[in-house]
């Protein structure tokens, strides 16, 4: 039993919870970080959304277990390898998932609607959308947008359109990088594992990544200088965080093209000290600008 529980936790992909930190974006940019109730609600929302997403991973792994068994890395997953009994995994999921959905409703009904929609959308993705070229990656990106909106709903703030666009573009960037990494990793066997890979080529994905990387930077820059952002945040100094974001994107390109880790974006982020350091520095600078109110004494125009 203990072994099965450990394998089930592995199946839930706890490290993937890093994707859900975007729920805290509204807490930061909505200037609610000093609001104890908002902070507690965001933390609870993070865990509820993460548990729901983990249950969705279990469902996906169950549906894809035969394909995953042919993948050089995914074949080691508990269901694909046969180490974990699929009935046991589905039984635990059938207990945990309803509890997470009920908890989401108790936290905030509107948040529960987003969580339920995210779950349903991912099931549709697993059955249909992942087999449609370009829409497969766009569907994954929509999941990140839903996370951002869910975080805003929990703390009761409006989410910037520019920030949502930036979130969408950044997730597209990592989505296309994952497809590129899979093509390089699987080579001739790519289409055997995931049929949709037959519709992609490395050169096409390079083009898509160049476009979305540029649009990610542009949308973030537009967010920092947007009149509504300046009015809502009470500062025009957020633009000074742009160099950090530029470095993070360039470092990501280095990880994808030089270190060849695009096929596993989460691992790439968690194991690259430069990306982690730039993310931490970005948070510190944003906090100083928005909450400490440090005057940089730099002219807005010259």
Residue ranges: pLDDT <50 for 5 or more in a row?
A: none
Helix content: over 70%
Q: How many β-strand stretches?
A: 0
The CATH homologous superfamily of the largest domain is termed UbiA prenyltransferase
Strand content: under 5%
Rg (CA only): 20 Å
Number of domains: 2
Going by helix content, strand content and strand pairing, the class is mainly alpha
Task: Give the name of the CATH architecture of the largest domain.
Answer: Orthogonal Bundle
Arithmetic mean pLDDT? 86
Indicate the overall shape.
globular
CATH topology tier name of the largest domain: Tetracycline Repressor, domain 2
What can you see in these coordinates?
It is a single chain. The chain has helices spanning 2-11, 25-29, 36-63, 65-68, 78-81, 86-107, 109-127, 135-155, 161-186, 190-193, 202-225, 227-233, 242-257, 265-271, 273-292. With 302 residues, it is mainly alpha-helical. The chain folds into 2 domains: 1-159, Orthogonal Bundle (Tetracycline Repressor, domain 2); 160-302. The longest helix has 28 residues, at 36-63.
Helices, strands, pairings?
Elements: H1 2-11, H2 25-29, H3 36-63, H4 65-68, H5 78-81, H6 86-107, H7 109-127, H8 135-155, H9 161-186, H10 190-193, H11 202-225, H12 227-233, H13 242-257, H14 265-271, H15 273-292
